[in-house]
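seq as requested:
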Amino acid sequence: MISRLHPIYLSLAVTLLTAISATARDLPASLTKHAEGLVAFWDFNEEAGQPRLSHGAQPYALKEMKGPIKRSDAGGVFGPYAARIKPGQWFMIDRPDLRDLNIHGKEAKVSVVAWVKRVEKSFWQAIAGVWDETRGKRQYCLFLNAPTGTRADEMKRYPLANRIHGHVSSVGGGTPGQKVCITYSSSATEIPLGEWHCLAMTYDGRESRVYLDGKLDSLEQYNPFPYTEGLFDGGAEGSPFTVGAVHRSGTWGNFFGGVIGGLAVYKRALNEAEMLALAQSVPLPPPTAKAAKAQEPKVTPKKAPAP
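struct tokens:
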């Protein structure tokens, strides 16, 4: 039937189909090998002032908030650049435009994978997710550096800083019996400043898990974190998808401060083998000179023998 079209319309149709096909193929090789269930992937190579467009069949546009958000010229992960998010800035997709990013329900599954370099020391840095604390519209979100972690066996929080956290909620508001949501996994390893790492969370309907550089960063009673209730359905008035901040206490906050070079969201939970393969297929830039120096073992000079 397409052959009967007027030559002009035929040309336009071919151009459109070519563009759609090119967009669908426009994924890094490391992502094409792990494309099953992939909702969106961003590489953050765009210039400041431009929306960050995802790769894949359904483009998602992250708009700058409190921008323009400059790109780092110190090298990226999936290209020469990355986005340098300063505290107080973030990216957002409005609720009506979430489509498959609106992951919810009793059978919901999700993976959030982010390639980031931490710069700021502040607590409660939101990396990415659908999470509105102010209006009780929490669904899922990957966080960095909560001051506490929740022990699953006690449902109490204890000091646990500089980790990554996979937050999940089936109720949207605070955990029953609590003012806030405390259902989240927490990693065993502290995340240093000035280094690129692959940080990830998964939820498979049974547990929230967090991964560091592709490996399940297990910590007894903290990671994995049992949670079988599913994810909240925020409805038409639910939370937007945000990168670098969430709405809490009536205003925007929980700001991420650092560099983000890649972000992938899946509507399924990657297993341990898949997460490791994905992380290992993406070379990370070396740490900054300052970070590398901080890793050097400290040598205490020996005292000279007494004369």
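The CA atoms of residues 155 and 177 lie 10 Å apart.
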